[in-house]
User: What shape does this take?
Amino acid sequence: EAGVAQSPRYKIIEKRQSVAFWCNPISGHATLYWYQQILGQGPKLLIQFQNNGVVDDSQLPKDRFSAERLKGVDSTLKIQPAKLEDSAVYLCASSLNGGNEQFFGPGTRLTVL
Amino acid sequence: AQKITQTQPGMFVQEKEAVTLDCTYDTSDPSYGLFWYKQPSSGEMIFLIYQGSYDQQNATEGRYSLNFQKARKSANLVISASQLGDSAMYFCAMRDLNYGQNFVFGPGTRLSVLP
Assistant: This one.
């Protein structure tokens, strides 16, 4: 069974630029999560999708972050414009209908200069 | 609001010995789940073990066991017979099952296994 795929693995941008990350969950997993993990901290949930609907985006900075999962499969997280404090690893995870076991992708490490 | 505390930023253990990683939590939801994840230097989060708040017995998965003390609101991870490959960051996490399905993670503990 293929795991959660994310791309790119690394991205370096300058502040005020925009960036997008892509995630493809495990086949058949209805629930998809995006997390932000700042260096030295635990992951923080940004947004949770159930199929193509948003379940929780209470911690998503909506003035600059957006995410979509249009067909209920893969998802894109965008930051526009980026700030220095957005430097972090962005982790995507999926689970079978919101089940307890989440499967994580390898993450995208973003550096904002 | 949910909160996870991990008071040990770093821990050392000798290979083949057992180690306990501490985790305390706070929630007002009587129904919740507790999780431990391992994050090696490669960055990927690996699920280790789960304990439900109403589970009568402590969870075990191979060399991992969860010492669940509900009254103390603690969910410590015990790793028996440590191996060099156990060196990683370990995160305790929880989700409230009634009030929402958010996962909240602690700050993590870095475990180093010494040969």
User: Anything to note?
Assistant: The longest strand of chain A covers residues 88-95. The mean pLDDT of chain A is 93. Chain A touches chain B through 23 residues (CB under 8 Å).
